[in-house]
Amino acid sequence: MRQTLAVDDARLSGRVADLRHALLGWWQEHGRHTIPWKHMASGARPGPGDPLDPYPIWVAEVMLQQTQLQVVLPYWQRWMARFPSLEALAAAEEHDVLLLWQGLGYYSRARRLHQGARQMLGQSWPQALEGWLALPGIGRSTAGSILSSAFDRPFAILDGNVKRVLARLIASPRPPARELAGFWRLSEELLDPQQPRAFNQALMDLGATVCTPRNPRCGECPWLEHCAAYAAGDPAQYPVKDASKPLPFQVIGVGVVLNGAGQVLIDQRLNEGLLGGLWEFPGGKQEPGEVIEATIARELMEELAITVEVGEELISLEHAYSHKRLRFVVHLCQWQSGEPQPLACQQVQWVEPAQLSHFPFPAANARIIAALLERLGLQAPEAPQVICLGEALVDRLGPLAGDPATASAELLDDRLGGAPANVACALARLGTPTAFVGRLGEDAIGDAFVELLTARAVDLSALQRDANRPSRIVLVHRDATGERSFGGFAGDQGLGFADQALEQGPLEQALPPLLTGAQWLQIGSIPLASPTAAQALHRAAALARAHGVAVALDVNWRPTFWDPAASASSGPPAAAVAAMRPLLDQAVLLKLAAEEAQWLFDSRDPKQVAAALPQRPAVVITDGGQQLAWCFGAHSGSMPAFAVEVVDSTGAGDAFLAGLLHRLCAEPTLLRADGDGAITDRLTAAIRFASACGALVCQGAGGIDPQPAAEQVVAFVNTTAATDLPAAVPR
Fold this sequence. Notes:
With 731 residues, the protein is of the alpha/beta class.
């Protein structure tokens, strides 16, 4: 019996050049040329020898282990948005890595990729197999694919597609796993040393699209005349497989344990073994002759040291792994006694049922979570697309020509506000899932905000409450005509206000799960006026950068937050500008009032503002009810604001920003910096939509109550006379 495989068999002798030529010719016309990590940064296909960034290729190759391309693509795109660089991945928490990987399976791949990123920090990308093989989770085929794809180096590959193609090419009588050395020699001999990147990709594409496991399309194959399996009459019989063994079957009892507060108990699996590091509902294997209720009660005592009352069945489902089949029988349980202990896991945690989506669970648990939420009458929350971080406060309006500090309560008009809180409420009203991150006092104002934000379906999982500091009250004087002026702050008992004490520690715990699914972090400059809150704000911006989440900065300069004695019309001093600079330098979207642009950049031209910053952000400059202007890369323009009767201008700028972020979440390509005319038109429409949001808020009292729904904005734009519509003016 032949012990090795080699291309000098009689069937292939002298045909290597023909095989290479035929395959590459086929690939030029029929290959998968839209794979994003195979392109240069410009979007062009690389030429011979052109290097590509190894990081996105590495991520893709690890994802493609055990998983098909069409499944991997959306995961890869989300991954690159959250972790766009080696540094971003290395800085991430494992929790966030696993949460983003959730649903892709084989979670050890994610942990090894994360470990490898930390191992590679500060090093040059390896140019030889040994360097890649030293990284966790990288085998010879993955290493060869990365080297050939990134650097066009002549290293062979042998993934599942390639094994199948080669086994059919020579009609191998034995499974590839039993002839690996020979298959590697065959792959190496066939590899075109002049075009290794193209050849390896062509070989993979042939296996994925033509030489498929079942029903191969032999009539389309460039190697048809060379294929021994086709000549034998039944290509689908190759590669030969070893006889499969039946998978063992087990029944798993699972307890969904609820406490008196309605929280549910989850535990995190040990990192070693199957599904390591993921969260799950506790349970274990049913013993012979044991009823499932007894299994659940026993397992929860053995693993968590708690006693429970096992109630009704919630759901039963089956799930197959590569090595076994499981049936999960899930019962609702009521916690009775015992403090949960992580006796067989990393940690245990009581969580609100609505927050289960913030934890990475195995795929089988998704149906359990859905069944639980349905039983409790809850809907699985959508992941916030925009996270609004900063102050929430009350504007206390005094009577006309009166003093809000001394007026009787019945003459005061308290309005919930604060720019980030306004933006969060406006986004939720428009239909964009959002979260608010801030700190409120444990007082009536804080309770009112929680009630309002909860009613608007704003995620408050990262909200902090302060037992010692009150929520901030801003006193607002109004003259006889209703014109407003700042009258100081109220409520401080000597420790400052709750928003000044936004803490970094709790923020680092609560923010990453929100960032995992978000597109934008929206912030302003007011937290920078307090050292504690400033530290938290800068940390939040760093976490956003590490997760690939874009920062939208609305400067919202308010001098009285820095110095209550300052004139409300004064510009930022040098210390305030220096505090803002790191945020200005990383904002992807920058919104400024015209006077803010003048103070900070000595210009009211958004093109000049964008050019003054290293990252060239998208810039929008508003000027009250006057002209607004923008510059998004090559797309720039201006338009007048809608002419409406103004009842109260409070919150108009916040509604504008919310409208713009709402449209950018729906159309992220609007941030493209090219000169595509279609994008210019869509961007103009998005800014007109945002302007309409601000105009509608101006027609009511307060910054939150008059915020419109999306259909109201569309109707307003559509029914406004064409002569009154703000038209874009190219700049």
